[in-house]
Amino acid sequence: MTNRSIFLVGPMGAGKSTIGKLLAAELKLPFADSDKVLEDRTGADIPWIFDVEGEAGFRRRESEVLRDLCTGPTRVVATGGGIVLSPENRRQLRKNGLVIYLQASVDQLLERTSKNANRPLLQVADPRSRIIELVEERDPLYREVSDIVVDTDYCTPRQAALMVAERVAPGATGQ
Ligand code: S3P
Questions:
Q1: Between the CA atoms of 35, 36, 40 and 43, what dihedral angle is there, to the nearest 10 degrees?
Q2: Is 61 labelled a binding residue?
Q3: Domain boundaries, the chain
Q4: Which of 14, 26, 74, 87 shows the greatest Cβ crowding within 10 Å of its Cβ?
Q5: Is 15 annotated as a binding residue?
Q6: Where does the record say this protein resides (predicted)?
Q7: Residue 119 annotated as binding site
Q8: Residue 156 carries which DSSP code?
Q9: What class has domain 5-166?
């Protein structure tokens, strides 16, 4: 069993929320999704926050949520894909838990994000190019903060969750 919170970082479509929930169940820890906490707090959805407050407003709120999720009980936290942009957020992540980078290929990210329109940064004419740009910019930041990197391309969310569980709490899954 781990006594440190686990933060899942990675690009939009990497599977942070889906894998995070399964991982939390596996480790018998509470689960939190930073985007969901932010939406519950503001009573507004992310596209609306981007519209009204711009990305800068969203990032301010996101950092507040992360600070709060860094205190309190040990848990599994799925973070938003841009959480690593702020140096202070990166410091918080490193200091307060074990950080897992969930990686996926551009093809997979594109496929997994094409199903819904709730990601303002991908509402562009050419989402593939946008994903490539974001991955180029952020991959070094995900690597900088992470303790473990997991490739999610060739596994189901359940397999990925078990793989992470085995790395962070060997023996806990009984696999
Ligand atoms: C963002 C990722 C989203 C959400 C917001 C911005 C980003 O979260 O926080 O739309 O900058 O990559 P997911 O990674 O959970 O989709």
A1: 60
A2: no
A3: 5-166
A4: 14
A5: yes
A6: Cytoplasm
A7: yes
A8: -
A9: alpha beta
Torsion-angle region of 137 (φ positive above 0: left; ψ -120 to 50: alpha; else: beta): alpha
CB–CB of 57/47 below 8 Å?
Answer: no
d(CA 68, CA 167): 26
Question: Ligand 1: distance of its center to the CA of 8 in Å?
Answer: 12
Nearest CA to ligand 1 atom 2: 81
Residue whose CA lies nearest to ligand 1 atom number 11: 82
How much distance in Å is there from the Cα of 175 to the middle of ligand 1? 32
